[in-house]
UniProtKB/TrEMBL annotation:
It comes from the Bacteria. Keywords: Signal. Residues 1-23 form the signal peptide. The lineage of its organism: Bacteria, Bacillati, Actinomycetota, Actinomycetes, Kitasatosporales. It comes from Streptomyces afghaniensis 772. This is Ig-like domain repeat protein. One of its GO terms (biological process) is carbohydrate metabolic process.
Length: 666
């Protein structure tokens, strides 16, 4: 179990994964990505670097689930009752798995994800763990005081299964197995779940298992409840993970004496070692980090990961027992997590062996376009940065929506940096600062945004406040000052009254003088606007003018018997016995009334006798009869007018009709 051997060339290849932004030092960091696993339980996890596949055994469902490096399920191998421990062949072509409930060991083609061979271990054999060592495939089996080790030759066409290889027979049940390419003829076994921990080392180079070291409570730690173990790549030590003590102890294979430890926290339950010696140690911790990464021989974690809470308890998700596995090039670490609803996830941790890096960026909240602004920040890590470290800066704005590289900023000895820029565009401007990382430190990215004030735009429109006659075609000219690229303006007309919406009269580019003209037919008071939507450097602007429009009024008198010029005006003559009728026609608007005013000339001046408002019909017409007993001889005059607001609406400006002059005779 847990030997991840590839060819020497592959094992030495170092491929750095995607950038991870994590807390400084050994502080907690979130998993880089995760994917749900369609499993009911987990027994073991193995990574195939050649095909970039992850194999996860599910004893309860009797299956091996196969995912890609992103956690996407690509295949499932079924009919594997109680499948638990797994081992990958040196060429990554075959995966071996122990079927505890199937009394067999199987071989699976890793490229096709299909079973290719099955070896029966005998009824009641109950294989649990497998490991390759000394040219043979070793498996553990048995329970109830009958734990033992067997082996077979996976390359032989008619390989016979050999049971009872551990003649000492001290294991209560099938022990956990592991081996290392650094000690090709050595096999290590440990009794799972037992207190205290029991370990044994075997020389298997002859094809038979001969104990060379044994320990009951190795190192006198009082540890118990063994969950996992892994042999170091150099074949010198074995690292165990037990419920206690709260660290992963290291023991020499020569005599199982203590040889160091990897300090984690409560309830260690997993360990895996990369071909380069980096150690991943796992713990079942609701409220503390779950995964701890160490450089070989160090006791302080280089990096830690704390899983989020995806369930319904107060504690976060926890690491599954024996749920850690390195990618052979150590570029990724795979971890299986479980929440309180028994939902499992595969968590893909990128660049796990690089020291965590924290990068910050701060920009002023506001800035002025084309004026200098300074971006500041800090870069920190658990390990010191070498002299000459730089961060790169990219600006994203309306002129460079995909981002424009601006250059680099030197990081000072205290981790600070600054960068000065003159943003050419206004609006939201985002600066992205990136530290690319190096062989020992993870990369990091930070961003900061500022609101850049655009340059004010000069925009004018003529004719503001002018009064025009009804139906007048009036030309309005807009003038646009200096802008960057946008030279288009829009001229809109919005007549008074809710029944006529604002209308786009003209849209176009201004001429070389910056002008654009449009003609508006005025029948009502109108708000005329010119709009400039702005560009990346100049601010949008709207200028609105109000112009006023008179109503059209036509009046006449009827019932007179003659007309003549007198007192420099045209007068209409009425018999005293004839009531004059005053006729009015006015441009119509719903609810509109006209003001009728009658005046008499007296003592050298025109004096108002009566002022009344009369409703117009739907055609804008009205006729008013002047009845009564008028005096003979005095001069009179009468007119109809539209009085803004008082005439029932405000869609036109006050307009006075022409006076009609008349006299009564006998």
């Amino acid at each position: 179990m847990h030997r991840r051997t590839l060819s020497t060339a592959t094992a030495l290849a170092v491929l750095f994964g995607s950038v991870t932004l994590v807390a400084a030092g050994a502080g907690s960091a979130a998993a880089d990505s995760s994917a749900l696993l369609p499993v009911k339980s987990t027994g073991d996890i193995v990574v195939d670097g050649v095909h970039q596949r992850v194999f996860i055994s599910d004893p309860t469902a009797g299956q091996v689930v196969v995912t890609d490096y992103a956690g996407k399920v690509v295949a499932t191998v079924g009919s594997l009752p109680g499948v638990q421990g797994m081992e990958l062949s040196p060429d990554s072509g075959t995966l071996y798995a122990a079927l505890h409930d199937g009394d067999a060991v199987v071989a699976i083609d890793t490229a096709k994800a299909t079973e290719t061979r099955r070896w029966s271990t005998g009824q009641g054999g109950g294989p649990a763990y497998v490991a390759l060592a000394g040219g043979r495939l070793w498996f553990s089996y048995g329970d109830g005081g009958e734990g033992n080790i067997g082996s077979l030759d996976p390359n032989a066409a008619d390989s016979a299964v050999t049971l009872g290889q551990d003649t000492s027979r001290t294991f209560y049940e099938a022990p956990i197995l592991d081996a290392s390419a650094g000690a090709p003829g050595t096999l290590v076994a440990g009794s799972p779940g037992q207190s205290p921990v029991e370990l044994a080392v075997y020389d298997v180079s002859s094809g038979k298992a001969s104990r060379t070291a044994y320990a009951w409570d190795p190192g006198d730690t009082g540890g118990g409840n063994l969950q996992d173990l892994a042999v170091t790549p150099d074949g010198k030590d074995v690292v165990t993970a037990s419920g206690s003590p709260y660290y992963q102890p290291v023991y020499k294979l020569t005599d199982l004496s203590a040889d160091g430890k990897y300090v984690t926290n409560t309830y260690p339950n997993a360990v895996d070692i990369a071909p380069n010696g980096d150690v991943a140690a796992g713990t079942s911790s609701w409220y503390d980090p779950d995964v701890h990464v160490f450089k070989p021989g160090t006791s302080i974690p280089l990096k830690q990961y704390d899983f989020p809470n995806t369930g319904h308890s107060s504690g976060a998700d926890t690491l599954a027992s024996a749920g850690l596995a390195w990618a052979p090039d150590a570029s990724k670490l795979f971890a299986i997590s479980q929440n309180d609803d028994n939902v499992y996830s595969l968590r893909v941790l990128d660049a796990p062996t690089k020291a965590s890096t924290t990068l910050t960026a701060t920009a002023p909240a506001t800035a002025t376009r084309a004026r200098p602004l300074t971006l500041t920040g800090t870069l920190s890590s658990s390990t010191a940065f070498p002299a000459g470290t730089e961060v790169s800066v990219t600006r994203t704005d309306d002129e460079s929506p995909s981002g424009k590289p601006l250059g680099t900023a030197a990081v000072a000895a205290d981790g600070s940096y600054s960068f000065t820029d003159k943003p050419p565009a206004g609006g939201k401007v985002t600066y992205t600062v990136t530290y690319a990382g190096d062989a020992n430190r993870a990369g990091a990215t930070a961003s900061a945004s500022t609101t850049v004030t655009k340059t004010a735009t000069t925009l004018t429109l003529d004719n503001d406040g002018k009064v025009y006659g009804y139906g007048r075609d009036v030309t309005f000219t807009a003038h646009l000052g200096t802008t960057y690229k946008n030279r288009t303006v829009e001229i809109w007309a919005d007549p008074y009254g809710s029944d006529e919406p604002s209308t786009l009269v003209k849209k176009g580019k201004v001429d070389s003088a910056g002008d654009l003209s449009a003609t508006v037919d005025l029948t009502r008071d109108t708000k005329v606007s010119v709009k400039f939507t702005g560009d990346t450097r100049y601010a949008p602007k709207t200028v609105t003018n109000s112009v006023y429009t008179k109503v059209k009024i036509s009046t006449s008198l009827s019932g007179y018997y003659k007309s003549a010029t007198a007192w420099k005006q045209k007068y209409f003559y009425f018999r005293k016995s004839k009531d004059p009728v005053h006729n009015t026609t006015m441009s119509m608007y719903p609810g509109r009334k006209h003001q009728l005013r009658v005046q008499q000339y007296s003592d050298g001046a025109w004096r108002t006798m009566t002022t009344d408002y009369f409703a117009l019909d739907r055609y804008g017409k009205d006729a008013v009869t002047l009845d009564g007993t008028p005096p003979v001889g005095p001069r009179f005059r009468i007119r109809s007018s539209y009085i803004d607001t008082k005439s029932g609406d405000n869609v036109n400006t006050t307009t006075y009709g022409a006076w009609k002059y008349f006299v009564f005779t006998r």
